[in-house]
Amino acid sequence: MHQALYRAYRPHRFEQVVGQDHAVTIFRNALRRQRLGHAYLLSGPHGVGKTSLARIVAMAANCLDPQDGEPCLTCEACLNAQLYTVEIDAASNNGVDDTRDLRERAQFVPAMGHKKVYIIDEAHALSPQSFNVLLKILEEPPEHLIFLFATTVPEKMPPTVLSRCQRINLRRHEDAEVAAQLVAVANQEGLAVAADAVEWISRKAEGSMRDGLAMLELAASYADDEVTVADARRALGSVPEEEVAALLAAVQAGSGEAILDRTAALEREGADFAQLSHDLLDEVGRRMTAAYRQGEAAAPAFWLGLCRELLTLEAGGVGSQIGRLSLESRLLAAAASAQKASAPSAAAAPVSALPIAVDTLAQLSGGRERWFDILLQGASARHQDGEVWIEFPSPGSLIRAEQEDARRLFEKGLEQILGRSVQIHFSMSKGR
Ligand SMILES: [Zn+2]
Questions:
Q1: Angle between helices 241-252 and 273-293 (to 10 degrees)
Q2: How many CA atoms within 13 Å lie on the side-chain side of 425?
Q3: Pairing assessment for the beta strands 39-43 and 387-392 based on DSSP bridges
Q4: Considering the chain, what percentage of its residues have pLDDT values greater than 90?
Q5: Extended beta strands in 122-223, E state
Q6: pLDDT given at position 95
Q7: Cα-to-centroid distance, 70 and ligand 1 (Å)
């Protein structure tokens, strides 16, 4: 049977665990010195490897031929981990049935190995009765017993239990760690993945290795040959990035009408508005960071405002009740304040920036794209130190530019003309 990628590539030894050096060190040292505690609480976001780590600990504690704290994976104990590992998913049945006779069963040494290890997933969801049973055991734990509690919300664990656990926090993975793992898995699977697809997926995984690998797998099922960003977006129910850019341009331009047109069109195309809201937030966050880094004057405030609107929407959208109307209302609010601030987008070019002839820009499409010529009517461009400001006379042009991905066209062409990498800022021309 086909095995999910994140299951197939979960770590089996400490050395394979990615990005949790702190936790690994604690366990390996305890195992080397044969001083493993009776109860640990592994806390951290979902998909960062809590259960995988717990399984390695169980195996390492029982391995007949451990190597520097690592399980050998080949001895009889390593091959029969199910004989001494008991996994309980507290979220699925509150643990009542599983813990009812726990107290009796826990007294017996395991059929194999010398440590019986209970791995309790989503431990915070255990019933109060179950916690009481556990607490009694933890007060005087038999020598052969180890409890590994895993939870995403340690604050929901009873303090009485917490106080008897050694607490180890697993951290969210960095994008680069997820990306590296995606590349490694793709290589082993013989799967071609475009670099920007890797980047996009690892960002979307938000620090969860499991989510990243699940997304890669889903995207691969959509891909013909190489997995592209478009495949990944489709797999996740995201609209194409040009659509996101165009919608943001409409907000930036303060054009309520354009926003409503776009959301109506997106609804006709069957867009998932909750996902769209995530994608917008993701892109807005990126632009906000970029604007701050570049020290732009007006832009960060605009992106920050829009960011707040979208965060409010997400916070209120528990149960994924984000629909077209709620998203529209937030975008319109941001558009209204953009218009009021009359600084609808990136800061204008500094006075010292040199003009670029519109004729030069027009050549970038090779004269093949009619929309491109229309776009450039009344536009102007200036450049300085690798930054290029292109101003359009109307919100319509600005939105069109984003929608047709003129940004990339300008970027590529101007990089050749100016002989260096460039950053493009779109805005509306003022004072006309
Ligand atoms: Zn072994």
A1: 70
A2: 25
A3: unpaired
A4: 41
A5: 145-151, 166-169
A6: 53
A7: 8
CA of 61 to the centre of ligand 1 (A): 9
What are the structural domain ranges in the chain?
5-169, 175-235, 249-341, 354-428
CA distance 327 to 350: 35
Q: How far is the CA of 110 from the centre of ligand 1 (A)?
A: 16
Amino acid at residue number 317: G
Report the relative pairing of strands 39-43 and 166-169 from DSSP bridges: parallel
- Tens digits of residue pLDDT in 131-180: 888 888 899 888 899 999 999 999 999 999 999 999 999 999 999 999 99
Q: Which two tokens stand for residue 319?
A: 């149960």
SS3 126: coil
Options 3.30.300.180, 3.40.630.30, 3.50.50.60, 1.10.940.10; CATH of 354-428: 3.30.300.180
Architecture of the domain whose range is 5-169: 3-Layer(aba) Sandwich (3.40)
Q: What is the pLDDT of residue 145?
A: 92
The CATH classification of domain 175-235, taken from the options 3.40.1710.10, 1.10.10.10, 3.30.1050.10, 1.10.8.60: 1.10.8.60
How many A from CA of 190 to the centre of ligand 1?
30
Dist. CA 85 → ligand 1 center (Å): 14
Q: Return the amino acid letter for 349.
A: A
Helix axes 256-268, 241-252, angle to 10 degrees: 160
- Cβ contact 332:256 at 8 Å: yes
Residue 398 CB coordination number (10 Å): 29
Report pTM.
0.71
Per-residue model confidence as pLDDT tens digits over 65-101: 999 999 999 999 999 999 999 898 888 765 556 666 6
Q: What angle do CA 288, 290, 292 make, to 5 degrees?
A: 70
Strands (E), 29-142: 39-43, 85-89, 116-121
